[in-house]
Structures
1.
Amino acid sequence: MQSPNSTKLKYTFKSDVLFKMLFVTYPHLLKRLVAVLLSIPIESINNFQLINTEMPPEEIGKKHCKLDIHMLVDGRKINLEIQVEDEGNYPERAMFHWARMYSSSLPSGNDYASLPKTIVISILGFAQFPGADVHSEFALLEVSRHEMLSDKMSFHFFELPKMPDVDSLDTANEKDLWLALFNANTEEELEKLVSTGGEVMSQAVEAYRGVTATEKFRYMEILRERTMHDEAQALGNARRKGLEEGRVVEREKWQNIIAGKDAQLVDKDAQLADKDAQLAAKDARIAELDAMLDSST
């Protein structure tokens, strides 16, 4: 549990700008992270290649800029992303990015068998699935026999809200240490991970301090924050406009209903006036007949 006297981190590992900049700058940490998350012995990785290392400021300043990391790991295509906010439909988003990666891997004229295993790893700042499991892995299976159609589709989701706090971690489990690092919000949590997590955590926290101290990172973070603020502002304005338009439509709807009722009342009044006139004419005729009878007698 976080102490009220804790020192809150200005930047956390949940920042997608920090996430990408740190692991692009320190690829040996990225290699270790991927090995741990996929339960691959790091010694077994012979070929590790980063594909998209660029972070141009003009891209950071665009709406919906995706700061994921693409890698080739011993012939496998891997996409790693951290997503903090639940914007809805995340599994569909992950499948869309998997499909783009997979379909772009087949050069013209090549056999389908040459398509690589394509893996999407998502570290989530929100709970996506029911249950208490932090890690969920999905593959393409036959629904009754659970027979795998192909091993070339794989999704891994790690839900940070389901992680225990730092004091309750199994420090022998490196996967939990990495996920706790992404989940850390205070200086005290970082210090705890450094003191109990060994050399890897010390290197990761040192890399964090190095990256966050650079002008480049701070500039990129300002751009990212400004873009997110502008998106939130635009969304808020759209919602307010929608509410106002909804009120106008609702008001016009009731005005039309009232006007219709008034028109009906006017029509009924006219009908009643017409009936009154008819009754008055009948009364006059009766009076006229009565007068004729009286005169004849």
2.
Amino acid sequence: MSAGTPAHPAPGPVVISAKHHHSWSEWLANLARAFFWIVLAGLLLHYSCGSARVVAARKQILDHLQQQRKSRVIAMIHGQDTVSVLGVPVASSISIEDSEAILRAIRLTPPDQPIDIILHTPGGLVLAAEQIAKALADHKGKVTVFVPHYAMSGGTLIALAADEIVMDPNAVLGPVDPQIGDMPAASIVKVTELKKPAQVSDQILVLADISAKARVQVTAFVTKLLLKHFPHDKAVALATTLTDGRFTHDYPITVETARGFELPISETMPMDIYDLMDLYPQTGIGRPSVLYVPFRRVPDVRTEPATPASPPSGPQRAPEQKR
């Protein structure tokens, strides 16, 4: 470099303008959002397809049972199904939606057609259970309830309406004493018997009044169901045993205990019901707890009365059927 030539300035640091920095960060944010929605859509599609396959398998088993037993088969199975991509299990119980679905299935069943109910439930709303039990008790055809694992509280109430209760050797039923909120009605009444009214809050007094009415109402309803199997005095005695709160609400009524109550108990559980239970619980969204398969319609084939025919003069053809 000659003495008169000016030196080149040293290169300074590279500076990204705020405009370019903002564009880059916005592009990354958009990419992250797009990736999130693609993954979410893929998960939802996976769960939806898996749930559809499981429901189809359940219906196939129910259809096979219907064809085999010549009955209307209804499953009310309450378990824990994963209903979100975060894997949060939600347990279900007998609800008004269940009673609406089962009443619809019963209404679509011919009066003399047998009905089979598969029950797996911790219980639920008394009103819904009583609606189902009354509809089954009024049905003219034979009603069979299958209990592969447990049918507690309202589930037992429904089972009492059946002509036959088929239980797995290890399955259990339960007492049907009413619950007010999360407290046994019998225990609420007991409090007012142990304490003077001045020592009890107004809220407990109100709950005690409701509890007393609930016990009378449920006992009367269970008595009506048991009249299907027992004379009046025996029906009242057993209804009182099951509803007066002498047992805890989760007390297991085993096959032996149920037979001691002289309920119509059997242990001939079809293997298809165990296969059905293997499909619960399953991951999926929107699994209905009540399923039934429509009967296969037999075509209405009518033939006209036979008329004398002249001997055929040409090749014979098969007679046609008119529908």
